[in-house]
Amino acid sequence: PALRLDDPRWTVLTRNEERPPARFGNRSKVANSLVAGGARIDGQLTNSVVFPGAWIEEGAVVEDAIVFHDGWVGRGAKVNCAILDKDAIVGEGAVIGAPGAAEPGGPGLAVLGKESVVLAGETITAGTSVAVGGGRGRALPLREAALAARGEWPR
Q1: Which of 19, 40, 48, 68 has the lowest CB atom count within 10 Å?
Q2: Which residues, in sequence order, are bridge partners of residue 42?
């Protein structure tokens, strides 16, 4: 049987931060996904899990992915078959992973480590792992990396 993440018999025991409810923009599209409180969805989300504080900007497409706490996916970015650890930043127009990459025989998931940064327009191919704090912006402090990725601090 398929795994149901909303099965009431499978509880998740954790201490949650108090955050406002999830926010969905007027043009957002969400299908078959779980979105935690404090998340903001302005783009397209399919078959994914989004944790508190994450922001999927307008024009971004996230499919078959997990975006952990306070992750940010910029306008026009595409994330497929990927795991983005907490505080990961994906700049505008960046491409992470590939559709179907996690299928048997495929190249595998793309994984971005905690606080990693992918600058605008960059590509991280399927099956690639970016180290904690790594990515194209690793030489920059987190705030400056976010500015380089889009031009404003995402939170």
Answers
A1: 19
A2: none
